[in-house]
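Pasting as-is:
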Amino acid sequence: MCGIIGIWAKNNKGKEQIAQLPLALPSLKHRGPNHQDYKLYSKCGLGHARLSIIDTDERSNQPFVSDDGRYTLVFNGEIYNYSSLKKEFEEGGVQFKTTSDTEVLFYLLIKKGVAALSDLNGFFAFAFYDNEEEELLVARDGMGIKPLYVYEDDSVLLFSSEVQAFQSFDIELQIDKSALNSYFGLTYFTENQTVYNNVNKLLPGGFVKLKKDKKGEGVYCDNLVDKLDLNYQDATKKLRDLLTDSVAKRMVSDVPLGAFLSGGLDSSIIAALAVKNNSKLKTFSIGFDHVYFDETNYAIEVAKHIGSEHINLILSKDDFKLNFQSFLSAIDEPFADSSAFAVYLLSKRVKEDVTVALSGDGADELFGGYRKHFADYKIREMSGTKKSLIKVAASGLKPFRSNRSDRLGELNRKVQKLSDGLALDHQNRYFKWCQFIPPEDRKALLVSDYKSLESPFTELDWEDLNAVLLADQKLVLPNDMLKKVDLMSMAHSLEVRTPFLDRRVVDFANGLPSNYKVNAKGGKQILKDAFRDLLPESVLNRSKKGFEIPIKEWLNDEIATVLNGPLFRSEFIQNQGLFNHSYIKKLQDEWSDPNFGDKIYMVWALIVFQHWWERNSTSA
C-alpha cells in the first residue's frame, strides 16, 4: 500500500515539467512513510511513496527498475495470487531478488503487457514504463479499491493517487461546476468525475497505454458475468470455500495485521475467518457516546465469541471538536460521507497496533445488504392495495419529524422514502434512493449549472434485482465506500484489505440468482447461511443499520458560528460564484426545525467543500 505519481510529456513544454515531479512527491508521504523516490526520463517521470508490507527490506523499494534500466514500475496495492504467478516464472528459470509481489508484477508486465491485467487478483494502481520503446501503461484494479487520478492538457498527462499532488505542477486546475450536482446530491463525485473539469478518475478496471505520440485506453474487466447454474446448497458451500481462501490470502504480511469489527454480519465473518489463521488476532470497533448511534455491544459480543483481542473506541463530541480540522485536511477533494470522520479516527487508533487491517467492505453491494435492496425487493413483490396503504401512511406522517437521529424520526424517514419510490420504475427508483440531498435543495443552492441527476446504468437489466447490486458496485462502492476507507486509512499509513472483493468472490456473487441474496427473509441470505455456524445468533438476526455519526448533535453548539464564519459570509460566497447565500442563510434559520431532516447532509457537504476550497483556492 503506497502512493504513486507520474508525468508523461507530449511535447517539449511537457518535458520541462518532468523536473517538477520531485516537488509533488512529498504530498504523498502519508501514504508511504517508509521510503520515497523517483525516476526521471526524457519522456516521463515516475514517483513512489512506500508503505512497507511484504518484504520490508529496501531491496523492494520503488521505483522498481530492471538491471539494464529499460523497465520501471511504480505500484500501489497488493497482488494476492503472486505466489502462484511467481512459481510459474521460477519454473521458467527466473531468479527473483526479493520476496515481494512487486517483482512478480514487474516480470509479468515485461512478459505480457496489458494482457497481464487479466491474470491479477488483488487491488492496485500502477504505472509501468518501457524506456526503450517509450511506452507507458497505467492501470487500476477492477473494483476501484485503489484510486488513480489523471490530469491532461496539451503538454502533459499526469497521474497520482491523490488529486492534491497535481498542485505542485505548473498547470491550471479549474472547478467543474457541473460536477457539483453530483457532489451535492450524492455527497461524492460519480464515475470518472472529480472537482476539477480537467482531472478525471481512471475508471475501475481501466487502463491507459501511451506510446510515443499515441494514446490508447480501455477497460479490461467489468462486473458483468454469466449466470451460474448451482443449487442453493452447492452455492452456499462454494461461497464459504472462496471467502475462506480469500481471507487466508490476505493474512500474508510481514507487519502486524488486525481486523475492523463493527459487529455487523460482514466484518464479523471476516474476523471469524481471520482468527482461524491467527489466534491472537486484534479486532477494532468504534462507537459513540450516543445511545441511538452506538452499536459496539455487538462487536464486543462477536469478539468474545470468536476469541479475538478486542479494542473498542468510543467517540464523543469532544473527539469531534479536537480532530475535526485534521480530518478536513486529510480530504484531497470534496467528499462528504459523514461516516468518514469515524473511519478517520478508527484508522488512527488501529495504526497504533497494526499496519494492515481486514474489513468487510463490499459485502453489501455483492449480496444485497443495504436496506434499500430489501425495500426494492418488497416493492417488486408488493400488491397494489399495500402500495396505496403506504402512500396514505406517508401522507399522514409527513408533518412529523423525519430524521436519522432517533427511532421515530428514522421510521418516518423510511416510510417517506418508500412512498416516494413506489411511483418510479426500477432504475429511477434506485438512483433517487442513492441521493441524500433533494433536487429542490441543490437547485436552490447552486448559482448555475444545476442539472437533475439521472442514472448512467441504462445497459443493465433492471427487471432483475441483480441490476441494483451491479449499479451499487459501479457507483456507491468505488466512489463512496472504497474512497472513504482508502482516504481515511492512508491518512494514517494504514493498509486496509477487503476479502469480499477478491475477484473470484465478486464473479461468483454476481453470477448467483438475486433470490439467493435478497428474498422475503431479507438481504444477504446466502452469506448468513454460509457462515451461520461461526457467529452468534444475535448478529445473524439483527436488523441492518447504516454506519453513521451523530453529526447534527455534534455540530449543534457550533453551527451558528460555522455558518456565520468567514467561509459562509455573503461577500465570500458572492466572490466564489458557486452558491446562493440566501439559501445558506435559510439553512441556518431552519436548523432547529424538527423536520430539518436530511438537510443536515447539505450543511455537512457545504462545510467540507468550503474548508477544501480554503486550502486549495489558489488552484481553483
